[in-house]
Amino acid sequence: MNTTARPHRRRIDRIVWWVYGLLGIVVLLSLFPLYWMFVVSTTDSATATSLPPHVLPGGNFLHLAGLVFDIVPFVNALGNSIVVATAIGVGQALLCALAGFAFAKLSFRGRNTLFLIVVLTMTVPTQLSVVPQYLIISQLGWVDSLQAVILPGLVNAFGIFWMRQHIAHTIDDELLQAARVDGATTWQIFWRIAFPLVRPAAFVLGLFGFVTAWNDFLWPFIVLKSPEHYTLQIAIKALQSSRDIDLGLAMSGSFLATLPLLVLFLFVGRRLVSGIMDGAFKG
Q1: C-alpha angle with apex 241: 236 to 244, nearest 5 degrees?
Q2: pTM for the full predicted model
Q3: What integer is the mean pLDDT of 14-36?
């Protein structure tokens, strides 16, 4: 039996090494753009566009980073991005979970039709909503304010769909019925029973919303006019002159804007992976 098992074991080991090797290549390819951004952020534009390209970092990063802080209000933009991204991340985690709970566990007229409409909105390109969204924000008098960036991002169709599917396949109806028999209100059932059970999936959704809001450029560029209201992406755009762009300076700003996300991933990476695995569901 041991003689027969050894070739099978060796075959499994070879397959495992092939898988690890392939995953290693994918990881290196994924990290290369970040590394190249750092390399360019330590050089100048001439070095960045030279052939053959330089693959080793230079020594100008601190100088270029200092220029970034001198040219644009980077610290203020960092604070604005933290406020906007945190508000959107928390809002999506809570509001999408609440809407998903309503679609999954509450019975009301037109539930399936409304949910279908929500899902269909995912097929509409984001650019098509810019004009009506701007008109609404303008009528409210919110142009050039952070709430103009925060409010439209608090809920999205994908988040509602994600939480609805997760709640439907995670929480038993009998548990909710027992809570109603004990006198719990709908809000108490959601906040004390449903939301704690789906918190890992809501955390993943909120983190995705945080990263998306952090990297968003189009909508903040449209509604934010004053430098004191700039988010990081708009501040980086301000590094570009009207005629040309200093690649080293721009990449330095981009790398500084990416560092908080890297630090965040170091702290929540394991929880993110476990939340994704916990949030996986069967269709």
Answers
A1: 110
A2: 0.85
A3: 83
